[in-house]
Specification:
The protein is an alpha/beta fold and 277 residues long. It has ten helices and eight strands. It folds into two domains: 26-111, Rossmann fold, CATH 3.40.50; 137-255, NAD(P)-binding Rossmann-like Domain (Rossmann fold). The chain has a five-stranded parallel sheet. The radius of gyration is 19 Å and the shape is globular.
Amino acid sequence: MMSGTELARDIVGRAAQRAGEYEKRAGRKPCLATVIVGDDPASVTYVRMKRNRCHKAGIDSRLVELPAETTTEELVAAITALSEDEAVHGILLQHPVPGHIDERAAFEAIAPHKDVDGVTMHSFAAMSFGEPGFASCTPGGIMRLLDAYDVDPSGKHAVVIGRSPILGKPVAMLLLARNATVTICHSRTENLPEIVRTADIVVAAVGKPEFVRGDWIKPGATVIDAGYNPGNVGDVAYDEAAGRAGLITPVPGGVGPTTIAVLLEQTVDAAHRRLDA
């Protein structure tokens, strides 16, 4: 089993140390601003958890709460104001936003040097071209898990199930940058089980509970379950897959903790970069 909890503890510990170093130099703490639109219970819970983690890591947390009827223009204006605020080092837009909002327009209002969640087109391009920037946090956490468990993607066949712009596509780019041969699958992929059976590394990010079955898994493969569904269930049928996989992430306790840890780490990185600019 690949524990994200232990890895996240190490990442956050180092981030907290660097946050303390920043505070000594700058006279203030690194600051992460979180924007939430509406009062979706799951989103409210996630935001509260992230703010608690910020506090423990020595990072200031600013919360911007907007009503569910907020327009795209109003949300873009709020994010633009944070992008221009010198006291803010990182910006997180809690997603998903209400359906009437153009989420991509909102993401693009985040200044690239404050995009610590790695959601802008600028950040995606940086990941794709191997240029400096911030990784999408869940894909970044997945790569850290692979490294922590000595899984070298080079030369391996990696199958990514899901093509979202903040998970499936960026993790595919990060794996490709590490010399994996990457196949991206999605809802219209034909013969999906057969394709997954050829994978040395499987990243499940499809958003359907226990969608990936155990007999899809190549014996000895590494399985990364990036899904989280009601009832603490991932996108992989864990008990079935664990019997065949060489390594597998649990849900919860796998990818989730590393996602938040990378967010905090990149917020501290953003603060140091601005100080050293």
